[in-house]
């Protein structure tokens, strides 16, 4: 437990979530709503507006761009370029929208040095280094 610093003291508590004034228009992951079991055939498919990442190939892999509210996991071997791709993408997005890059592995200085080495615009991308999940 991060509060009492003891082991085996955390218990699961399920809380009911209600929205003032009725159900929220979008809830859950990437706008998912409801909690009943359905078949794929029962689920209405509507085109979700996406925005470009700034990289054509990444947008192609993501099905046409980034879905607002989605979480994207990029995996690969160490040194494959995951952090570089993310930094380039985030710097591009920061030119068009508010953007926050949170790093838990690299120092802010390491990220800034990479951005400088790549010649990326650095005046709009907000940065935070944090290793505590509770924060």
UniProtKB/TrEMBL annotation:
Q: Which species does the entry assign this protein to?
A: Aeromonas schubertii
Q: Which GO terms describe its biological process?
A: recombinational repair
Give residue ranges for domain RecA family profile: 47-135
Supply one GO molecular-function term: DNA binding
Under the heading SUPFAM superfamilies, the entry gives: P-loop containing nucleoside triphosphate hydrolases
Q: What keyword terms does UniProt attach to this protein?
A: DNA damage, DNA repair, DNA-binding
The reply to whether Plastid figures as a keyword in the UniProt entry is no
Which Pfam families does the record associate with it?
A: ATPase
- Show the GO cellular component annotation of the record: cytosol
The name of this protein is: DNA repair protein RadA
PROSITE patterns in alphabetical order: RECA_2
């Amino acid at each position: 437990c991060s509060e009492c610093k003891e082991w085996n003291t955390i218990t699961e508590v399920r809380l009911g979530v209600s929205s003032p004034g009725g159900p929220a228009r979008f809830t859950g992951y990437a706008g998912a709503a409801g909690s009943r079991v359905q078949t794929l055939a029962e689920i209405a498919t509507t085109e979700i507006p996406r925005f470009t990442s700034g990289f054509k190939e990444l947008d192609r892999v993501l099905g046409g761009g980034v879905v607002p509210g989605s979480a994207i996991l990029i995996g690969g071997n160490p040194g494959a370029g995951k952090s570089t791709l993310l930094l380039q993408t985030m710097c591009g997005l920061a030119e068009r929208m508010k953007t926050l890059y949170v790093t838990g592995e690299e120092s802010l200085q390491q990220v800034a040095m990479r951005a400088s080495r790549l010649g990326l615009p650095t005046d709009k991308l907000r940065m935070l280094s944090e290793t505590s999940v509770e924060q």
